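Inputs:
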Amino acid sequence: MTIVPSAIELDQVVYRWPGQKEPCLEIPELTVAVGERVFLYGPSGSGKSTLLGVLGGVNVPQSGRVTVLGQDMKEIGARARDQLRASHIGFLFQQFNLLPWLSAIENVLLPGTFSAVRKARATTERPLRDEAARLLTHLDLAPALWGKPSAELSVGQQQRVAAARALIGRPEILIADEPTSALDAARQLAFVDLLLRECSAAKTSLVFVSHDDRLAVHFDRHLSLSEINRAAANLEVRDVPL
Amino acid sequence: MMPILKLAARSAWARRLTLGVTLFSIALSTAMLLSVERIRLDARQSFTQSVTGVDLVVGARTGGVQLMLYSVFHVGQATNNIDWKSFATLATHPAVAWAIPLSLGDSHRGFAVLGTTSEYFSRFQYGDGQSLQFRAGQSFANVFETVIGSEVAAKLSYRIGDSITLSHGMGNHGLIEHADKPFHLVGILEPTGTPVDRTVHISLEAMTALHLEWIAGAPVRGVMIPQNLVQKFDLRPKEITSAMIGLKSRSDVFRMQRFVNEFQGEPLLAVMPGVALDELWQTIGMVERALLAISALVIIVGLAGLVSTMLASLNERRRELAILRALGAGPRDIFLMLSIEGLLVTTAGTVLGVGILFVETQVGAGWLLEHLGVVISSRLLSSAELGLLSVVLLTGLLASLVPGWRAWRMSLADGLTPRV
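Outputs:
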């Protein structure tokens, strides 16, 4: 084995939402190497949400090939796509990441209940709960908040809990969709810093989507979604920002 | 699969208030359906078992239903009476074990007065062969004594020792009072849920005594026979309205019926009470079907409430579903999660409904019988009731598929980013 597969490979991908004539995603080529940290600059309406759905295996392109960790997303089928997402991809959204009726730490433990792989990797050094506690501590969340219902946390605290959940069990890929947009400027940098540190430690490939190019300097590679997505020109209301 | 069910339970618990109210409304509608079904069956049973242990009811020739109506339910009037001699002949027939004469026509404040013998209280049976019981006092022994049913006592607040007067004819107004011949109240019967509860019982001799100075349904002008002198007259009845007959052997019933129907002295009719009551019930059976239809509608309203509650909450839970999707849940898991939630609420609701029914039949049965004359029996669920329950559950399952299907569509359309 000499060739290490890329974390993500897109080849001639065309995606059209059901009922729409024009595709909203048309990406000839996109590769993210293992451990790479990619900053994807995407203004609203550039096909951002659709791309995240395609990467996560929730949306399957009508043509072209999506390969995630060496798996052809179309070939493996819906069940396996869900399983791959559970085991190998952490997601971090703009806001409202948490299940409000679970406590902060219960939210962090969730990936372990959905995937045995994530659970096994999270528990190589310590029990699952301790690993969750370690991540929350690293992300600067005071232990007093761990047992609180997540609905009672501030937006910034919620985002850090969500980051811990995305990182637990060291998934190979972390996809972050404007995770800092709900934070104030001072906290944004600190949050990105924390995220990058944790990704490096776990050798996680990071795809970070944002329309705030001030954050771009922290990343290995910068891509403009409007440039790589040929369909961006004919995009419509489908991709409204949250 | 399992983690999503645990999460579904946590999510449902977080919405316990709305779901609880929905569950309770399903419970109430289930309890109503079962109560109506049970009351319906019990009403039919207590109706068709208004009189049991009697093999034949005999009256002047008329319709079978009409004979039952006036003999047992004291509704309407007999067109003809039976001659006492005919009754005596029947009573001494070798196949006959006992015969009880019934004489009707008078009333007391809207309640029918039945002239009979004291043997009536020991022979009359209803339900599964229950006999009449005295709540207070005992049977009449003297002419001007009376025994009343429980409802008469309750409605008119009568007690043992009270004195009452009877009216000539049936109805409430414009009746001539037998005011000169008051009756002494000596007995009150336990409730039975049958027409006995609404009846004033006197002896046949008293019936004759009341009408000594009457001819052709009206008092003879100027004739007054004081109460203390009636004993000087022959009080043996000349006619009765109908009779109840018990046979020595049930197998003789058809032979005896034919004997009565072909009676030589006068035109008579004998009916088997069970058969006639069943026939009578058929004519009023429409009401019970209407009741059942109404409670079926109430169930549908309850389940529609469930669907609308769940659909409404679905909009608020759109993000929740997207998070679960991101964590690895498939659209099928989302569908199951919602459908199972609906099914569990329906199941818990129907179980609670059965609980309400049990409490109601245990605690409320006495009150219902006493105040409404409604019989509701407390017993385990019958197979018909289990059938109704499974129809409710099946409908609940179908109803639960609606939010499940909607959530499935939603999670497909939303992907990972809910459009709220």
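Remarks. Strands of chain A lie at 8-15, 25-32, 37-41, 63-68, 71-72, 89-92, 173-177, 205-210, 221-224. Chain A has one domain: 37-58+87-239.
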